[in-house]
Amino acid sequence: MKTEDRVLGAIDVDGLLGSVSDLIEIPSVTGEEAKAQKRVAEVMREIGLDVDVWEIDLETLRLHPHFSMEVDRREGVGVVGVMGEAQGRSLILNGHIDVVSAGDESNWSRPTWKGTVEDGRIYGRGAVDMKGGLCCALYAAKAVLDAGVKLNGRLLVESVVGEEDGGVGTLAAILRGYRADGAIIMEPTELKIAPAQAGAHCFRITIQGQSAHACVRGEGVSSLEKFMPVYNALMDLEKRRNTGVKDPLFATYRLPIPLNIGIVQCGNWPSSVPEKLIFEGRYGIGVDEDVSEARRVFEEAVARAASLDDWLKKHPPTIEWWGGQFNPARTSVDHPLTTTLAKAYQDATLSGPVYEGVTYGSDMRHLVNVGKIPTVLFGPGDVRLSHRLNEYVPVDDLVKATRTLALTMMRFCGHS
Amino acid sequence: MKTEDRVLGAIDVDGLLGSVSDLIEIPSVTGEEAKAQKRVAEVMREIGLDVDVWEIDLETLRLHPHFSMEVDRREGVGVVGVMGEAQGRSLILNGHIDVVSAGDESNWSRPTWKGTVEDGRIYGRGAVDMKGGLCCALYAAKAVLDAGVKLNGRLLVESVVGEEDGGVGTLAAILRGYRADGAIIMEPTELKIAPAQAGAHCFRITIQGQSAHACVRGEGVSSLEKFMPVYNALMDLEKRRNTGVKDPLFATYRLPIPLNIGIVQCGNWPSSVPEKLIFEGRYGIGVDEDVSEARRVFEEAVARAASLDDWLKKHPPTIEWWGGQFNPARTSVDHPLTTTLAKAYQDATLSGPVYEGVTYGSDMRHLVNVGKIPTVLFGPGDVRLSHRLNEYVPVDDLVKATRTLALTMMRFCGHS
Prior knowledge:
The structure is a homodimer.
Chain A: H1 3-9, H2 13-24, H3 34-47, E1 50-55, H4 58-61, E2 77-83, E3 91-96, E4 116-118, E5 121-123, H5 127-146, E6 155-160, H6 168-175, E7 182-185, E8 196-197, E9 199-208, H7 223-242, E10 259-266, E11 276-285, H8 291-307, H9 310-314, E12 318-326, E13 329-330, H10 336-349, H11 364-370, E14 375-377, E15 392-394, H12 395-413
């Protein structure tokens, strides 16, 4: 039996599904990942990886120019599992353990915090984004070890915190010295190969009104009413920007660089004219776009809307760039990492690889821009199901991703 | 010296201003009035009133058909000060001790919770709405007592809680048996006589969307986007309703029956399409309008907007009538209460009385509709300054109101 076939045959599918479910059962909303990280480290040890677990020094990290964070984090744990020798090319497989909040749990048709295997899917918060992908990396490594295969280069499996709000965990791993000749992040790409990702900067805008008793509401200035022209200007901006995207990696997207308003908070009493409105959102940035120029265009759109309103002219909205600041990143489609992954996918799944950029921010930017590590996204499931109720990952995708990652690590790192 | 002149001469202006400031220093936001009520009872005793202080039985009150409340109240204290005999007409002077929250205190140019006398005004939360008016009643009673005058009829000074969110305090006083031949509420009418008030029902509307990751926001449904047609429909409704108001008591109002949206809460993560938007507001109702019909018109406007949107058609907004439900009320301009007050105002201030309806809800509806007590609003200061930063009441108004109330109680109740 060929070595590669032996490794593919050693993949422990039951263990894989069990581990995904186990991790879903530990709610690890961004900022509260310690318990889940402990569990990942245990799994790594059971598999046979050397495990590095450390407390992230948030105070030092905060000074880094690429640091960004939204939640009020008290602690962060880094976990990296290592195998292989130092002779071949090294490879990082990176997955984040943090998940977004459940939303309104009563709207879920299946348990939020329990992995439910049903109709060939695993349901639960984090299934697709991205405990599923993280477990694929772990079980690919396990298959290699279980088959008695030794990698020539180092394989580093990184379980990172804080991806959803700025990538503090991956940044911490880079600063701890973890580099490699290539990196794959198992974000849900539907098993497409994503060598490019658009950026996304989070923003907060404050609109000031003037309070008054509701009974003379014409004498106050409603911050909600003054929000309307700013909202319309931003929706117009989104439309204009998205008509100009030519990159073939983004040809399938209706909104390659979306502008999402995710939070609005306005007023504090039904019978008062609302004095203040604060809204927060996420501004998509093109892969090759200059980040400062993108911000300037955004700020200009808000300023222009304000200039057309007598009140806003005198009380201009304030813009803060705050929280997740995901810069875009790109790796060549001709890089050995990309080509090795594509060939491995073809051999593992008997289907042709598909290349497509992604519109979401991920830790790719830290690996590429800070770590200078060529990085590609590749993982099970559909990102459309993430951050959403009834999130799930297909079991078939999990198996295919694990097979592909196993072949990729053997071919990229070499083995004996 | 004529008796009336002796009473007017006995008005303790320094004491009046001091008491207003004292009460402003006790933050008595709706639901947390116990400490301020205790202080009012002390002042009443110092003045020489017989004081009834009682713990309101909220559980029993909750069953009353006119009960309405927004805050999560744990307790409520009733305070009524009584003087005079049972021979003449009885009069209630009603003022609420609760105030709305401060809003953003950093925007106040003077202390929020401290009475600051400056430029002939007292500044601070509650100055005009309506600790100022309440103190006028107390100091009018004090002047009568200090001048050694005995009223033939009972005078009842009521300090009530929970006016801002439904009138639980005044309802409790009525149910405790406090009735009279007339009532004046010292709400800020700029010393105009208000024998009519529009109603106001608070509402909450929930708009359901569908969450999605911001990077594929077109695949979710933004509850904010779906709020827009409902918002526009309600603003249109407000415009239409306010063009049809003919009552001369409301001729000066640009919006006699305003529709205010006071709170919007939407979404919980900048990078998620917001799944749910909840907004709350206050719907003005005309003085002689049928309340059920007014609600029907409102509900129909929301339903019509929803019917024109494919998503909202399938996921119709839900409407709750919740919190303050202020029905309209009216007292004849020819009633002896109204005419006595008007003449007293003329004699006390040497200016002609002005009649004007008010657009805000107040406890008038409970006194009129539940207690069957003819009621008029009359008090110092401008309601436009209430629920607003840098709220103040003019000292001159406080003095004029106190003089007017002193003459009114003497003439309405009779005296010896």
